[in-house]
Amino acid sequence: MSDENASLTSPRIVYPVRRKIKTRDDEPIINSDGQITNVTVYCTSFDSRIGRIYVASTDKGICKISLPRENRKDFFRWLKGNFDPDCVTDNRSRNREVIDQLTRYFNGRLVKFTVPKDLIGTPFQIRVWEELAKIPYGSTITYKHLAKRVHAPKAFQAVGRANGANPLPIIIPCHRVIGSDGSLVGYAYGVKTKEFLLRLEGAIII
């Protein structure tokens, strides 16, 4: 079996816990391990211009993307840290739209992602990620500017950590944040990948 078609999880039928009906505004059910237990997670992987990318989504939207510097083990460690493993299943069709949009992005044919997102993080992290999502294609801002945008002008380090914890790289474009001197610093997936993405978008690199 090729790696492309290999199952990402042990073959089994997944029966997610449904102790109450989950609606868009429902609070997640959390177990003693801090895992969400009432949400099914669909995951798969695909090959891209920068290597193998792993993706996961819920019924609400895409929740995790792992670029090549994160491997399969890192990807599932993140999922296990946030979801009940019994609710994680291999399903490529559920992720077809995000794969298509990422592929078109890498081919220079997409500048804005429209796939729904299911963000999992602290209120501060989500505030930073939502601000990151506003940075236009082909543009960059500094960490200092980002801190001001989230009304935390002195919290450079906290903003940087939230940037590094972004679960949806590329779709939430943390690669568009650069140092005050224009340097390509602080990218969890490496400077080479950051430079590739910025050049792909036609951003000016000092």
Structure description:
With 206 residues, this protein is an alpha/beta fold. The chain has two domains: 1-120, Methylated DNA-protein cysteine methyltransferase domain (Double Stranded RNA Binding Domain, 2-Layer Sandwich), CATH 3.30.160.70; 123-201, Orthogonal Bundle (Arc Repressor Mutant, subunit A), CATH 1.10.10. The protein contains six helices and six strands, in the order βββαβααβααβα. The strands form two sheets. It has a four-stranded mixed β-sheet, sandwiched between helices. The longest helix has 11 residues, at 72-82. It starts with 40 loop residues before the first strand and ends in a 5-residue tail after the last helix.
How many H/I helical runs? Answer: 6
**Radius of gyration (Å):** 17 Å
Sheet of most strands:
4 strands, mixed
The largest sheet has its strands arranged as: 3-2-1-4
SSE order: EEEHEHHEHHEH
Rounded average pLDDT: 86
Number of strands: 6
- Fraction in helix: 25-40%
What overall form do the CA principal axes indicate? globular
Unreliable runs:
1-25
Question: Topology of this structure?
Answer:
Layout: E1 41-48, E2 51-57, E3 62-66, H1 72-82, E4 88-90, H2 96-106, H3 123-132, E5 141-142, H4 143-149, H5 156-164, E6 177-178, H6 191-201
Parallel strand pairs: 1-4, 5-6
Antiparallel strand pairs: 1-2, 2-3
What are the defining features of this structure?
about 210 residues; Double Stranded RNA Binding Domain; Arc Repressor Mutant, subunit A; disordered N terminus; two-stranded parallel sheet; 6 strands; about 30% helix; four-stranded mixed sheet; globular; alpha/beta
